[in-house]
Amino acid sequence: MNLLATPWIKAAMRSRLYPAVFQWTTTAVLAVLLVAALFGPNNAGQNFGMALTWTVWWPLLPLSFVLFGRLWCAICPFAWVTDRVQSAVGVRLSAPLVLRRYGPWMIAGLFVLVTYLEEVWGFHGDARKTGYLLLAVLLAVVFFGAFFERRTFCRHVCFIGAFAGNYSRAGILELRADGDRCRDCATQACHRGTTGAPGCPVFLVAPSIDDSGTCELCANCVKNCPRDAIRISTRRPGSELWSIGQPRPCDAVLAAMVAGAVLIEQFAVTGSWNGLVATTGAWLHVDPNVSFPLVYGVLLAVFMAAPPAGLALASLGSQALEGRVSLAEIRRNLSFAGYAVIPLALAGHLAHGLDRLLTWSRTVPFAAVAMVGLFPGSSGAAWLPRRTILWIEVAVLALGAAVSLYAGHRLAQRYARRATWAAYAPHSLLLLILFAANLYAVATMMRQL
Amino acid sequence: MSRNTCGARRRIDAPGLRVAGILAAVAAAIAVPSAYARGADSKTGAYQLAAQLPARIWKGEAATLSLHVQKSGRPADDVAACLAPAPLFAGEEDATDRTPALGSDLGAGPEPASQPACVMAIAAIRTAPGIFQFTWEPDTAGRVNLQFTAGDSRLIVPVDVGSAPANPALLAAFVLVAGVMVSAARWMRHARERQGGGG
């Protein structure tokens, strides 16, 4: 269903106020968050900025990519800052070649770094550190906005891109151009822009968009297109994963890495975690309390490397069962099959986020009134009983696993040279192992109740 | 000893040292514990309790709190004194805490298991007749209820735990670096425009 066929949606998308109104709102909220994080109480539950960032925004972010594609990126306050800095002083250099070539891998590296620092420095428990993190991101945004064209930071650097692209691919919204109308278009207004609106901020040419991993739904192309060729449609969730046009190994590896990052976050809140840290410390011959950054670094490396390594092994097994083992074939197999991991990684991320949202977000209104010096009585703990929350997590994980297994089957039908079952079996085993690991973490939390 | 005291009196006449003396007095006043906060629960308990708290308590820094316990006007030692600091509303870190007192944030202190008389709370060390001392390192900021107990008596003292302000050097560095980047970009843009205009 083309949403732009609805007159008021089309009018809204063409309006100059979209996405500006949302950007102004999120920028105002960012300003409040920054002030609260840097100057408010340094306590997660009583700091409005902290409570809103870590118990509402962060858990809801993956869900927003599923429901609205990368719309968040269009209304992100950092994107607004980029645009403002650029229009004021921007030099507008081309994005460096190294970013264009290795951008996804750099994003993966930054994602690992932020995940590591988040645990070692305890961002979500320390308002000041959250404030410093926001300032550091703001500096990077100012730098890229000042020197490079369009939204180079958003496209090639922002660590949220590590999962934003893949989750949007699994989402229910897509922007595409009508190829027939675009065929003999010489203006490329969608890319270059017009006097009415700038060109695509993330360097896309509408007719060549064949996946939802990059488009931010900023609607500049909707405003600029002289032939009314753009459509924004709903679709079955996950359908893009098995119809992906040009599979890229970096997307597959990123999906698997995110699955590993989610898994370590899940384990970190279980009772097994302390034992795991102690064992790793003993194995490294260090005191895990004193050398926690080292111990956590090793654990994070293992957790984040295990799913990509498993994916590579599954691809090797898949090709061996098909009787075609070569580096090129394994790489091709991995590139395709990796997209099947995305729904499960997303489900794990959502489940972990729901845990935080349903358990802790009740502190937000209390933290808001605490900003003006009022301290109401106890807010109680969670929105729902803990056991109910954990069962919701199980349901989300099961749904993600089901979509992953289905996507894997559909992908195997596409890329298998001979037998589908041979191509599919090792990957389905990997998906089941990942599902079981997530379930184990949730079950451990249930046992602790 | 008296010579030292006299020497100190003479030296304080110098203007610089006088200022230093005032500053030292201010610092000492800040460091000196506040007056006793009294409020024993006399209806249910047999002991009179009075707490002595530092004027400022910061999150992440150890604070020494004292509890004065008396019975019939005389110091009482035959009790186990305990401290249970409870935030007035649940914070992120308290939400899943199943400890008593609405999710007490216990901070640093002896392990509950080793203090059977102070289950899930901080136990005191007796430092003088009827005086018990607690070491509390708050890991939460904002309004906190300190609940002192001794025997069957209870004293609740609400305190505000402060937060150390953001590092001004880091904030200044941020402003400086952002300013340098923006200025450099503006200069480059003007240079390019001049080149373009000249060409």
Shape of chain B: rod-shaped
CATH architecture of the largest domain in chain B: Sandwich
Q: Strands of the biggest beta sheet of chain A: in what spatial order?
A: 1-2
Mean pLDDT of chain B: 68
Order of helices and strands of chain B: HHEEEEEEHEEEEEH
Largest sheet of chain B: 6 strands, antiparallel
What number is the mean pLDDT of chain A?
Answer: 90
The strand count of chain A comes to 2
Task: Indicate how many domains the architecture of chain A comprises.
Answer: 3
Sheet-strand content of chain A, in percent, reads under 5%
Binned strand content of chain B: 25-35%
The number of strands of chain B is 11
Annotation field: number of helices of chain B: 4
How helix-rich are the residues of chain A, as a percent range?
Answer: 55-70%
Q: What is the CATH C level class of the largest domain in chain B, in words?
A: Mainly Beta
Q: Which residues of chain A form runs of ≥5 with pLDDT under 50?
A: none
Write the layout of secondary structure elements.
The complex is a heterodimer of chains A (449) and B (199).
Chain A: H1 7-14, H2 20-39, H3 48-68, H4 71-75, H5 77-89, H6 97-120, H7 127-147, H8 152-156, H9 161-169, E1 173-177, H10 179-182, H11 189-192, H12 220-224, E2 230-234, H13 239-242, H14 249-268, H15 272-284, H16 292-322, H17 327-337, H18 341-360, H19 363-370, H20 386-415, H21 420-447
Antiparallel strand pairs in A: 1-2
Helix pairs in contact in A: 2-3, 2-5, 2-7, 3-9, 3-18, 3-19, 5-7, 6-14, 6-16, 9-14, 14-16, 14-17, 14-18, 14-21, 15-16, 16-17, 16-21, 17-20, 18-20, 20-21
Chain B: H1 2-11, H2 15-31, E1 37-38, E2 48-52, E3 57-58, E4 63-71, E5 74-75, E6 81-87, H3 100-103, E7 122-123, E8 125-128, E9 131-136, E10 142-150, E11 153-162, H4 168-198
Parallel strand pairs in B: 3-11
Antiparallel strand pairs in B: 1-2, 2-4, 4-5, 4-9, 6-7, 6-10, 8-9, 10-11
